[in-house]
Every structure is written in structure tokens, then in C-alpha cells.
Write a structure and sequence with these properties.
Blueprint lengths: L17 E3 H9 L8 H9 L5 E4 L2 E5 H7 L3 H8 L3
Length: 83
């Protein structure tokens, strides 16, 4: 006897939030901070230092991936009491 195929549940997809470099500079360094220039951030994206991509002629930072991967290991150790 054959079993009926069960529908596969879709895995929850992580939503990407692509933001312009100017918005990234504002969010990361704030109004009073001194961010790297736009060209430097484009180079960081090209070299894989900051997650992002080029769409057409514009460059975008993947804010969700940046926040997930941007953590200070020393701070994590201190908070855990390991340092």
C-alpha cells in the first residue's frame, strides 16, 4: 500500500534588509560619528568584510547579516565570565 506524499513545510526564511551605504553609515556611526568613505565601504563589500551586494550601479549592505555577524568576541567572553 502506497503512502500519500506529505507536503514539505517551508523553512522560515531569514529576511534580508538591504540598505544603501549612506543609510549604513548613519546606522552604524550615527550623526556624530566619522564613518569610512563610501568607496571604502564598497571595497569592504567586494572583499567580503561587510555583507552586501551591488544591484545595478548601486551598492547595498545586508543589514540583517551585518548585525548577525558583527559581534565582539571579547565582549561575549566578558559577559559569560570567561575573561
Amino acid at each position: 500500500m502506497k503512502r500519500a506524499l506529505q507536503p514539505v513545510k517551508a523553512q522560515p526564511e531569514t529576511r534580508r534588509e538591504l540598505i544603501k551605504i549612506s543609510e549604513f553609515q548613519r546606522r552604524r556611526w550615527g550623526a556624530n560619528g566619522t564613518p569610512p568613505c563610501s568607496q571604502a565601504i564598497r571595497n569592504y563589500i567586494k572583499n567580503g568584510i561587510i555583507p552586501g551586494e551591488q544591484i545595478g550601479k548601486l551598492w547595498y549592505v545586508d543589514w540583517t547579516a551585518y548585525q548577525a555577524g558583527n559581534r565582539n568576541d571579547l565582549v561575549v567572553m566578558v559577559l559569560k565570565g570567561a575573561a
